[in-house]
Specification:
The protein is mainly beta. It has 2 domains: about 50-70 and about 165-255, OB fold (Dihydrolipoamide Acetyltransferase, E2P); about 70-150, Nucleic acid-binding proteins (OB fold (Dihydrolipoamide Acetyltransferase, E2P)). Helices cover about 0% and strands about 45% of the residues. The chain has no helices and 18 strands. The protein has strands at about 10-15, 15-20, 50, 60, 70-80, 90-95, 100-105, 110, 110-115, 125-135, 140-145, 150, 170-185, 190-200, 205-210, 225-240, 240-245, 250-255. A hairpin with a 5-residue loop joins strand 13 (about 170-185) and strand 14 (about 190-200). The model has no long low-confidence stretch (mean pLDDT about 90).
């Protein structure tokens, strides 16, 4: 029902017959023309800075993507450890009267367990490179992915922080590369939709993602090459990919338009 229709190469007709080379630039058909210096873009990418929204007395510090820190190290005690057949254990940790759940998303990394197989209640451990977040109840969760691990330890090491000492919200600023769209049907049978924006700055790239109804209406006017600041986002990570999540209280501000 959907036969392929290959696009002929520049300077060739159907069947590979050579014709006169076109005069127009390849940029006319390139998806990245709005970002490329040879197209309509430039190399002067954002690199952090500050932003004061119109009508707001507060000035927000904007963090360069290379300086975002989605991972933390914590020395703590295992408050509970529940064994689950054929799965990683369900863990709760405690530190100075505070509690957090540990979500072991990846049980192995390069063939090695990401947690001690005999971990038990009362063990003191270091959570290395875990990703903090909150669940829908507002409870603190610490995610263990292939770049994180749990080790038994007797004391904290340099760089370990308190359970509530990490930076929970960040402000980011970048140039739009493209938008993303995901949808599906949840376990309860209800449809869901998530939208996102891939941003570039001088130090890297991130995706800002959120539920469909969390984005302001201005989202639909954004296009490649626009520069925006997104304030008060939380961070998530999987391996080396960093993602910013749109939360309640997050705001989006257009810094400049590609056509300006």
């Amino acid at each position: 029902d959907c036969p392929t229709i290959p696009r002929p190469l520049r300077g060739f007709a159907e069947g590979g017959v050579k014709i006169e080379d076109p005069e127009e630039s390849r940029c006319n058909t390139c998806d990245w023309a709005g970002l490329c210096p040879n197209g309509t873009g430039d190399d002067d990418l954002p690199d952090g800075g500050q932003h004061q929204p119109a009508g707001d007395i507060k000035v927000y510090d904007l963090t360069a993507f290379g300086d975002l820190k989605p991972r933390i190290n914590i020395f703590c005690e295992v408050f509970s450890a529940t064994k689950v057949p054929d799965k990683a254990p369900n863990l709760t940790i405690e530190q100075d009267g505070g509690f957090a759940f540990v979500r072991i998303i990846s049980q192995e990394s390069e063939g090695v367990l990401t947690y001690p197989e005999d971990i038990a209640k009362g063990d003191t451990v270091r959570l290395i490179g875990v990703v903090p977040s909150t669940n829908w109840k507002g409870e603190l969760q610490l995610k263990v992915d292939p770049h994180a691990r749990i080790e038994k330890a007797s004391q904290a090491e340099e760089g370990d922080i308190g359970l509530f000492d990490f930076q929970a919200r960040w402000n980011v600023y970048g140039r739009i590369a493209y938008t993303t769209y995901k949808s599906g049907i949840g376990k309860n049978g209800k449809p869901w939709t998530r939208k996102g924006i891939v941003l570039l700055d001088n130090s890297g790239r991130i995706t800002v993602e959120g539920w469909d109804n969390a984005w302001p209406s201005i989202f639909n006017t954004l296009k490649q090459g626009d520069e925006i600041a997104v304030l008060n986002v939380s961070l998530d990570a999987w391996a080396i990919d960093v993602k910013a999540n749109l939360e309640k209280g997050s705001t989006l501000h257009v810094i400049s338009r590609a056509d300006d």
